[in-house]
Amino acid sequence: MLSKNLLALIIMILVYILLAIVLFFLGFRFMMFWRMKKQKGKPAPELSGSYGKAIQQGKPALFYFYSEHCGACRPMTPIIDSLKKDRLPCYKVDITRHMDVAKKFGVMATPSTVLVDKGLVREFMIGPQNEATLRGLFR
């Protein structure tokens, strides 16, 4: 049978490990929240190609950053396609192919959605979003 001191030590170590895990995830969530707040209102990055043209038009444009390996991204793909069918300017950006674009926007997690309007980042959302939320960005 384990002595009381050894048992107390094991419990203390387990509590410290659990506390470290909780603090790690809280810190990660805070970092993501801070990143979202920091991006809003900043000028959109200088881009070339169709992404750059979308920003330069001065109209609202939605950039959806995803990865083919991301499980949380899969339910959003039909939503983005639905918005595109309704002629709303939406651009799907695969971060594995266009890492430079993701870096310029400051994307660190997928799925991320960025609304650019009049050359400024108006919204920066991390995580899956529903269709009503995304449609509301264009109003």
Report on the architecture of this protein.
The chain has 139 residues and is α+β, with helices and mostly antiparallel strands. It has two domains: 1-39; 41-136, Glutaredoxin (3-Layer(aba) Sandwich), CATH 3.40.30.10. The chain has helices spanning 4-39, 49-56, 76-85, 99-105, 131-136, and strands spanning 61-66, 90-94, 112-117, 120-126. The protein has a four-stranded mixed sheet, sandwiched between helices. Helix 3 (76-85) links the parallel strand 1 and strand 2 (90-94). The longest helix is centred in the N-terminal third of the chain and has 36 residues, at 4-39.
CATH topology of the largest domain: Glutaredoxin
**Based on helices, strands and strand pairing, what is the structural class?**
alpha+beta
Radius of gyration: 20 Å
The biggest beta sheet reads: 4 strands, mixed
User: Strand order of the main beta sheet, please?
Assistant: 2-1-3-4
Distance between the termini: 68 Å
Keywords:
Glutaredoxin; 5 helices; 4 strands; about 50% helix; about 15% strand
Layout of secondary structure:
Blueprint: H1 4-39, H2 49-56, E1 61-66, H3 76-85, E2 90-94, H4 99-105, E3 112-117, E4 120-126, H5 131-136
Parallel strand pairs: 1-2
Antiparallel strand pairs: 1-3, 3-4
Task: Write a short abstract of this structure.
The protein is α+β, with helices and mostly antiparallel strands and 139 residues long. It is built from 5 helices and 4 strands.
